[in-house]
Design brief:
The chain starts with 10 loop residues before the first helix and ends in a 12-residue tail after the last helix. The chain has helices at residues 11-33, 45-66, 91-107, 110-138, 140-148. The longest helix has 29 residues, at 110-138. Helices cover 62% and strands 0% of the residues.
């Protein structure tokens, strides 16, 4: 299978499968089985909901700002380093991971957090694959961008 637009060929399908799997595990553990949600007895619901709100605000920012690269109307010709891309190289993937993290924290589901670790490994794999393609396509411009921008966490003190 051939990659499309610099993405891993199985990226979209597997992201959808992981989303469904995560939601089934999260909902099943959080609301029905309650196998690993014992921490919810010790951490206030208000605290968990505040964390959920903050994480979802960050996820929305990264998602909205990151969609500039998927827009066919305003597709950039070079390396995008504005908006969320100024801080991290994969804001759309980070937005998804933050969404999963927020849901896991909101119900204190340890099973969901364990699944999130596996989901992160997948996202890191496809992000690394895409970075190789971007390096081939943009060369020094992308290498320079990588040096000053974090893959998942913003680099401190590396602003322009």
């Amino acid at each position: 299978m051939k990659e499309k637009n610099g993405e891993h060929p199985f990226g979209d399908a597997r992201q959808l499968i992981l989303l469904v799997l995560f939601l089934v595990v999260w909902a099943g553990d959080s609301f029905f089985l309650r196998i690993s949600t014992f921490l919810s007895d010790y951490v206030s619901l208000y605290i968990r909901l505040i964390i959920l709100g903050l994480v979802l605000i960050a996820a929305v920012y990264f998602s909205k700002s990151g969609h500039v690269v998927t827009s066919h109307v305003h597709r950039a010709a070079g390396v995008v380093s504005t908006g969320a891309f100024r801080y991290v190289r994969h804001p759309l993937y980070l937005a998804s991971l933050l969404f999963y993290l927020g849901l896991s924290i909101s119900t204190a589901s340890l099973l969901s957090l364990a699944l999130l670790v596996m989901i992160f490994i997948f996202y890191n794999y496809i992000a690394s694959y895409e970075e190789k393609l971007l390096h081939k396509k943009f060369g020094e411009e992308y290498r320079s961008y990588k040096i000053r921008t974090g893959k998942w966490v913003p680099k401190i003190g590396s602003g322009d």
